[in-house]
Design a protein that fits this description.
The structure is a homotetramer of 475-residue chains. The first copy, chain A, is of the alpha+beta class. Chain A is built from 19 helices and 25 strands. Chain A has two domains: 248 residues, Glutamine Phosphoribosylpyrophosphate, subunit 1, domain 1 (4-Layer Sandwich), CATH 3.60.20; 178 residues, Rossmann fold (3-Layer(aba) Sandwich). The longest helix of chain A has 15 residues.
Chain lengths: 475, 475, 475, 475
């Protein structure tokens, strides 16, 4: 579906400690995390001495040519992929951020969003600090440089204690890799290992936002970085400390609903399992009389299979997605109705004609895309269209690293379900309940979830909509 | 899977008669046909006077920028997308071919392969004709120019009578669009219509290799161009004639097995229907004791769903495909086994662990990719892997427009099924029978099929393997 | 000065027979001939078997990267650089033209213009020949292919006898290089030799439009290809024949006035010698009372030095040329007068202030640029500006390979010298006489000249302004 | 000549206050200053609110497309063009540098080199400052941010008092333009005005490294920014103050010898006048018996004309420069001697043959290029070659903004003049004396000069060769 009508994850990170081709592993890790951010990417490597940086706009495979990678050759690396906000400073705000300071040269990549960044920044600027970007991440490096602690590790812990919000981050110095997660554990960050990869005790240590990155580079998942934990991989192995006391966990449930890849383990749980269960739960909560279950591909497929399995209604690929869409520029063709959606999706008339269809999607953001899809499915001959959404209505923006539209644009923040049904033109419409959502994702088992976007209840202070809203420098 | 281990369709064509934005419709048509050829594309348009051409290497969306399209503005258009053979002459051989002759300026786009091109070419050259490309398509334009017939339409019929083999082609002159199919109907070509689009009686006439192109541009499917038929869309409407007497039909069955998009009607039959039926037939012919049916995505999905439905074994997305792969250059990473396949596919351990898996794919070409996939599925914990292929073993090359490896490379031309099973490391292996294949695709209903690649029985003369093999200028 | 206000040479050619790096020598030859055409270039090489072609739009150094050249590796090569006419077919019309015919694969590069091309083309098309370009050069290859002569050399002679006009051309077959000049010898073509370069008797044979190409690649000038001569360099050395009887020579005098590089020998005479003599002759014919002689750089420098030497008035670089201008896009800045000229030229106020200046240029085409320069020189403080032009007024278009404006645009075809003086705002204006021009260029010594652009007397038939004017496919 | 064998100016700056198309004027100013740095360029503009930045690698005309400029639209602008040092951080070090600080958002462009940058930087880092580049310019912005002065202007003066060395710099804040020169006035910086351009009292204020930039944008030269002066152009007009007491002036004499364009006024003196006088002085100091004076173009032309005028020996363009050389990649062709030089220069045999030649150049750096030129001139038939250099031998590196080779590479630092003569193969060799040089450039009239590169006497402390040598971050 058109990009503008989906929530967008903001960023993935990866880090490699001690591998003769660390730059390639970082590249491949970003490749596997590409779904977490497709507008810019960067890698910083170390050969034990200098930190080399390359970042650019576009997809990972476009930014890193063979030649570029060969110039980045090193045995430590961190990488970052993200959505950038529009404007000419886009590349400037791309990560990792590399700086030179009294703690040496360091580079940092961050997934999440700080909610007290602007206050800290004002304070630092008043003391003579210079900022080069609009990114809240830069606040962290300044806090490290300003810290009275002499050792880099202590200074980092000192800095992380001062920031509030969501952060899973990796940092590189010429000879070490650091990884940390905020005390509430909003965003994922996993630790893995490549046996015999070349590290201190023979192994390569890796960190990544999702475990699918481990699979591609031949690493095995060990455990998540814990909320409040700060890990260091260095010449003498891995060490761990807690920079802050534990807080109630607030893992982002949207990782399971939509962002993460189904083949990843996230917050200790297989995403595919959650997705199928979301569909089964939805079938139990909101059954429908129909001839077939049809997903809106690709994101609705897992839930649709769960729905079909639970309901006994046959699953059909009644909508075909064109994977070549890429960056076609084509402006709306007036003569073709719902043209934008048709570029990506095409209904299979031979399947849909005369049928009652349960259409499964994972969200309705503004409603305009859903409306076009429903119309298109009807146009291909469907007799009835029953829309089922595998999560609750989204009513509040996220301040922890997800790019949500403003409340004005969120259809569920402004209309009743019946009004939405009418707007999208479905015969019936149902969302999954918040309880069903949590149950499907195993809330309370390995973690507890933040579901603020569905409930409006935010787990941190500082979430002042008035103040934070305009600051869109997420990552 | 790696490109090199799939058969490759050779080309899609589209043509538009009379629309104020014909160049855009042609662009979109090619966009919808992108799966039929991803290495070069071209469009020729007419504003009633001159023929404007643009072609390039790469994906349709890369070749045609907004600026390029605006320079092609016209109300008649033809387009072509194809695989090119390697070498510096790749762009030269891209289509459409535009020439100036005594019949005026014309341009032609061709899907298929002529089997008597080299003989005709030698003859033409001996009479002083000059060739600019290695493409057999150029033979057709020379035959048109050399024809004693004065009228372009007569000259075209004259030319088409002299060539033998597979051709679905569209041609443009400043004020007309021509479309023709060879007498055996090897490759598809459909006729559609956009009501009120702007043509002579108010409608726009369109031709395309597959009907999915019609869906995107808002055209309705009317009928196939018939084998041996030559159609003209011009100021006085559409006319039809038969340039050659009917022959037994030899529609390419691989269009239903693999090439065409599932949302297309091809040879009058819904492709999705054939695909699901291939899986059901396969389940009947080659059942397996297993816990789940897993497709090799994307091409094995439909057959896997059919297999699951027929067998009652649950369908699972146990392999996740990374759609961002694009043109990553990355060379094999020595430290990661089966790296090339992992870039595109990742197994879902949480699903596969401890399970008996039926793995469904649509073909085994060289066997190397299948071997890696089986190994990867086992590596993710599967207890048994039963490979099922939704078509018969491929034992002979195609001479009608499909890019098949040489016989030396085709594993099924050189090994028994048991040897292949052993090579790929599956617990069991079965292919669909030729009878099952034909039954699943509705042989004898709307058409009869060419299945030479599975049987070695070629429907035309001139198929001299010795002579034709080196001529790889397919399209 | 702005490109539009200069005559433009149409093309340079180079050919290399037998050198282990023939593609590099061809590249360098084109590099040295870059001033003869800056909008497209191409090279065809042979390794004794196939002909490899690369051509593109732009400067030679942009078109041929190291990678491109390495793919062209061969020991025979021809090259072409040219101005292209506007429009989307520009690359199509770029040369060399490579074709496959009954005489084998050949490629041809042409400097000049045929005056009977359209008549021959119509005739060939009526017999079934197909043309791919608008270029008159393509006529020659068709005549070769159609020729009843079996041997390529005989067919080429046969073809060249049928065309009329200006042509200096080089041709390559897999194992030979051909070079020919029209019987009137309009355009230059020189033969050179690299001792021990690797050819049949140890030497490499080279042909080029100007000898400056020889200097760069270490070749020594041997002699010009003679008017009406057809040379072949092949395994058994060089052979020569005359395809047509001698005609009165009509060497293009503008080669000496403007086109050729001053370090070249052209038509057997040093260009630098002619240029300085043009200035001296001008000083004798049109003296001026002044304080300094200032050239319009770069083209007026040699003549200005001659004028200064003859007159005794000091030479000064009162106008500085900015060589970085390149392809700046910048549109006219309203607030800066004569902005376009200022981008390229800047007056040196400290030299010009209060002085009487003789300004020397080599031509006035439309007059608009000269007007701006005169105004700019006055603006920098010059008290008097005496314009002197080192050739006669241009009153007629060229049909032999020079891109001249239409007569409507040529200021000298429409205004008297006094009117021109008034238009450009000079205190006095004088042109060199036709007699002075011929004398300065040594007319009657090594060659006789065509000066049709100054006299309107054309040396060939077929120069029908009405008919030929619109055909702008020059090279 | 090959780039590596010339001294390279390090940077040009331009600034525009109050013009409706300030971005275009800045672009054109950089265009005129292109000779001062051709490897990167940048522009920062303000529309009174935000500062917009664009910088890139390459020539000005390549970096700033029409589209880029339109995004930079503003009425204040500064620009910078420079040589970058090699390596991946090249773009990072490009200028202007834009930062956000407690004094607001500012951007700064710097021509010159600080000699105490590393000491200050260490001190700043120890206090928690973070550096993003290797450039000494970044030190200045940190000093501004750290300054206890509240007002930006006071903070700037405070910062400039702390740095030592050469700096001509321009700075932009959202509503003001600042310009300053170091107290010794090493590098030039001129103030100009466009009457009625749109500023506070109707005029546009401009600053530029050389006055040739003024000519192009229609500005008139007013005066130089004085050594130690800090100017501000803002809503209430121009104000001036001196941030430091006056020092003996040390204007870089190499600006007159080589760097500046001949049409510029630099340090209040016409460069063309100095250059011609250098030649005349050289003729008086080091006469030669010869038939012609030949410059090594383009840089030796003015001095050669002076030499010819003074000596009475005729001036001849015996070497032709190919201005298309651009960025040809071509590696040395083994078979052609002195190939690299031949790509750029070609001797005119018809002029040189049998003659005694005085060859004039403006410097000998390593000597290798001069040797090739002498050999080439002899190869074209010259009987004698007398080399004359229009400045003294270069024996010491520059620390004030010129990129000189190390002393090991400077031929004159290691060999006697006779040894150099022998190395380059000339019949005689002479350099201009230091006294002659100063006299020719008017030393003591409008300024006094730094000639440390010829004498080894440096005008500042801190010039510790050991320490500063490796720091090559000049600009």
């Amino acid at each position: 579906m058109p990009k503008a009508d989906k929530f967008r994850e903001a960023c993935g990170v990866v880090a490699i400690y001690a591998h003769p081709e660390a730059e390639k592993l970082a590249y491949l890790g970003l490749h596997a995390l590409q779904h977490r951010g497709q507008e810019s990417a960067g890698i910083v490597t170390s050969d034990g001495d200098a930190l080399r940086l390359h970042k650019g706009m576009g997809l990972v495979a476009e930014i890193f040519s063979e030649e570029v990678l060969s110039k980045l050759h090193g045995n430590l690396a961190i990488g970052h992929t993200r959505y950038s906000t529009a404007g000419d400073s886009a590349l400037l705000n791309a990560q990792p951020i590399r700086v030179q300071s009294n703690k040496g040269t360091i580079a940092l990549a961050h997934n999440g969003n700080l909610v007290n960044a602007s206050v800290i920044r004002s304070h630092l600027e008043s003391q003579g600090s210079i900022f080069q970007t609009n990114s809240d991440t830069e606040v962290i490096v300044h806090l490290i440089a300003r810290s009275k602690e002499q050792a880099l590790l202590d200074a980092m812990a000192d800095a992380l204690r001062q920031v509030e919000g969501a952060f899973s981050l990796v940092m590189i110095s010429p000879d070490r890799i650091y990884a940390a997660r905020d005390p509430r554990g909003f965003r994922p960050l996993a630790l893995g290992r490549i046996p015999g990869g070349g590290g201190p005790n023979g192994d390569t240590i890796v960190f990544a936002s999702e475990t699918c990155a481990f699979d591609l580079i031949g690493a095995t998942f060990e455990r998540d970085v814990k909320p409040g934990e700060l890990m260091v991989a260095g010449p003498s192995g891995i060490t761990s400390r807690f920079f802050a006391p534990p807080q109630p966990q607030s893992s982002c449930i949207f990782e399971h609903v939509y962002f993460s890849r189904p083949d990843s383990l996230v917050f200790g749980r297989a995403v595919e399992e959650s997705r199928a269960e979301l569909g089964r739960e939805l079938a139990r909560e909101a059954p429908a009389e129909a001839d077939m279950v049809v997903p809106v591909p690709d994101s609705g497929v897992s839930a649709a299979m769960g729905y079909a399995a639970e309901s006994g209604i046959p699953f059909r690929f009644g909508l075909i997605r064109n994977h070549y869409v890429g960056r076609t520029f084509i402006e709306p063709l007036q003569s073709v109705r719902d043209f934008g959606v048709k570029l990506k999706l095409n209904p299979v008339r031979s399947l849909l004609e005369g049928k009652r269809v349960v259409l499964i999607d994972d969200s309705i953001v503004r409603g305009t895309t859903s409306r076009k899809i429903v119309r298109m499915v009807r146009g291909a001959g469907a007799r009835e269209v029953h829309m089922r959404i595998s999560c609750p209505p989204t009513i509040s923006p996220c301040f922890y690293g997800v790019d949500t539209p403003s409340m004005r644009e969120l259809i569920a923040a402004n209309k009743s379900i019946e009004e939405i049904r009418e707007f999208i033109g479905a015969d019936s419409l149902a969302y999954l309940s918040v309880e069903g959502l949590k149950k499907a994702c195993g809330d309370g088992q390995k973690t507890t979830y933040c579901s603020a976007c569905y409930t409006g209840c935010y787990p941190t202070d500082w979430v002042d909509v008035e103040e934070i809203q305009p600051a869109r420098g997420r990552r």
